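Researcher: We're teaching a course module on how sequence relates to structure. For the next exercise, students receive a sequence and then see the predicted structure as tokens, so they can try to spot secondary structure elements on their own. Here is the exercise chain.
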Amino acid sequence: KLFSETRHLLEAWDRLKSQVIQTTNETRGLYRIGCHASVANYSLPLFLPKLIQEHPSLEITLEHDLSRHITQKVLEFQVDVGIVVNPVAHPDLVLKSLAADEVTFWQNPKLPNSEVLICDPNLLQVQTLLQKNKRSGLRFSRRIESSNLEVIASLTASGAGIGILPGRVAQAHGLRLKKVKNAPVFQDQIHLAYRTENRNVRAIQVISKSIQNAFA
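Model: And here is the predicted structure for the students to work with:
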């Protein structure tokens, strides 16, 4: 009985090993890409249409959250590939630099409602800029808070106030926003992130290369 059960276990193991090797060497299967919704808006259209067209056996699902949460989800095997801003280095992560960005104060120069600040106060970049702004000449008597950067950009373009935004968001969708002169700046670094165990998985290599080419 022991021999019989062991033989079944070995056969199951061989089948599983074969499936894993096949998945590792082929561009197929279901993979989850994670990034902040605003990062998704300006980055996914650059590579995703071509990626899914060239690899019909590749299935993609999307996860949107703050970059620090996406990074944690990559570590916890909940997300396969992350496009994250200012990630903290970790021995289990492969991090590849994609691009730089600047977070600062933006306005519609024709409708500069300069007494109103529009921002997401939960972002580390915003918190840092507000601290730096105490030493600048910008002063605000009112504040509009939103967790959606696209809403902040739209309101800023409409003249509702001065918005704190990443440059890639401020300049997307044809919005004619200008940096506020002499305003403080926070430097962002955008990275690709995946677990070290996945560095030789063919599909991860293909997805990563597509993302890197999009930012090149």
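Model: If you want an answer key for the exercise: Residues 168 and 203 are 28 Å apart (CA to CA). The two ends are 60 Å apart (CA to CA).
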